[in-house]
Amino acid sequence: MPNGSGPVYSSSPDPDRLGASSGSSGLCCPATATRCEVANSFDEVHLVRDLIIQAIRAAGFDESACFGIQLALDEALANAVIHGNSRAENATVTITYDVCGEAVYLSIEDEGSGFNPNIIDDPTREENLEIPAGRGLFLMRAYMTQVQYNERGNCVTMLHERAARDEGHEKSSA
Questions:
Q1: Could you give the CA distance from residue 61 to residue 64 in angstroms, rounded to a whole number?
Q2: Three-state secondary structure along 48-74?
Q3: Which comes out higher in pLDDT, residue 145 or 20?
Q4: Domains in the chain and their CATH numbers?
Q5: Angle, in degrees to the nearest 10, between helices 42-58 and 63-78
Q6: pTM of the shown model
Q7: Would you place residue 64 in the very low, low, confident or very high pLDDT band (cuts 50, 70, 90)?
Q8: How confident is the model at residue 152 (pLDDT cuts 50, 70, 90)?
Q9: For residue 90, which phi and psi values (nearest 5 degrees)?
């Protein structure tokens, strides 16, 4: 388990997570993604976040896409560190990612008990405007093509497809 000495990398992510749209070419493949297990601290998760954003820029995504992906990633990482792992110093966050020409695949998993994302109220409704909860999920869904959670609710998997976002295709979320 990481002890704050930096990320531990692996190339064996769970290939059963969210995948790219069927029939599309050049999209990311979770089976070839990079997997990093890091200590449950913002310093550690931000090291990996910065590498991911560098890879996204290097793949030619525009600044608007980079902004949205980083915002969604930051929200998922904050949720893992603060809510999922309750800021526990001995916990870890597992970040799996792949960046390719047409898409960005991200998976953030914490060690927490999970939650049901379907019970989070819409933060844009009048009665929820002053309630701080749920804004991160709203932003992740707004900026990513697909957002899905595992059954336990302790792992969010997101996909940003360049063409789908550019063309305004429907987003799916579960």
A1: 8
A2: HHHHHHHHHHHCCCCHHHHHHHHHHHH
A3: 145
A4: 8-13+29-169 (3.30.565.10)
A5: 160
A6: 0.79
A7: very high
A8: very high
A9: -90, 0
